[in-house]
Amino acid sequence: MEVNVLDIKGQETGRKVTLNDAIFGIEPNDHVLYLDVKQYLANQRQGTAKSKERSEMSGSTRKLGRQKGGGGARRGDINSPVLVGGGRVFGPKPRDYRFKLNKKVKVLARKSALTYKAQENAIVVVEDFNFEAPKTKDFVNIAKNLKVDNKKALVVLPEVNKNVYLSARNLKKANVETASSINAYKVLNADVLVISESSLETIESILNK
């Protein structure tokens, strides 16, 4: 699949790049995508939710009523879960939600996500660019020139570029990532991928090891 290379003004440069079919043209694996997205979201969880159980509550341990004959559920002290203000039964405890996925699974997930974007013609290849200083207005102008200003865009750069990152930081629909840090969730969550020309080489070198 060939894609025209655009400049930051949105004009065609006359050059074309060929998207590697081994990355952008495979048979997508939906289950692997599900696992990778699930892992990414699980890794974002703090896992700090905590509620007090009966034994952790402060209060008298005096038995409030008879064991039988009261017409209701059995209850002991004031900390009983059946009473308002009592402890909670099987409440949440701090835990780690992270789980492991094999490297090959994660690679396949990224290839599947990129393939879906290629099938949707949602990939824009732009020549490498840089800003002399962080300026959101310049980033917005580029987005307008590339006709992606009204879409949720993931801008993929070959390496960390602080000026470009800071220029896009305050924009809700823009996200800047390096080619080595993209994952299936970020790709699928974007409406369009804006990939710099040099980033394609980095993506191929990482996913075609």
Envelope shape: elongated
Radius of gyration: 26 Å
Number of strands: 6
Uncertain spans, ≥5 residues at pLDDT below 50? none
CATH class of the largest domain: Alpha Beta
Secondary-structure element pattern, one letter each: EEHHHEHEHEHEH
Keywords:
alpha/beta, 6-stranded mixed sheet
Secondary-structure map with pairings?
Elements: E1 2-6, E2 12-18, H1 21-24, H2 30-44, H3 103-119, E3 123-126, H4 136-145, E4 153-157, H5 162-168, E5 174-178, H6 184-189, E6 192-196, H7 197-207
Parallel strand pairs: 1-3, 3-6, 4-5, 4-6
Antiparallel strand pairs: 1-2
Helix pairs in contact: 2-3, 4-5
Structural summary, described in words:
Forms part of the polypeptide exit tunnel. Belongs to the universal ribosomal protein uL4 family. One of its GO terms (molecular function) is rRNA binding. InterPro entries: Ribosomal_uL4 (IPR002136), Ribosomal_uL4-like (IPR013005), Ribosomal_uL4_dom_sf (IPR023574). It holds the Pfam family Ribosomal_L4. The protein folds into 2 domains: 156 residues, Ribosomal Protein L4, Chain: A; 50 residues, no CATH class. Helix 4 packs across helix 5. By secondary structure, it is of the alpha/beta class. The mean pLDDT is 92. The chain contains 7 helices and 6 strands; from the N terminus they run E-E-H-H-H-E-H-E-H-E-H-E-H. Strands 2-1-3-6-4-5 form a 6-stranded mixed beta sheet. 33% of the residues lie in helices and 15% in strands.
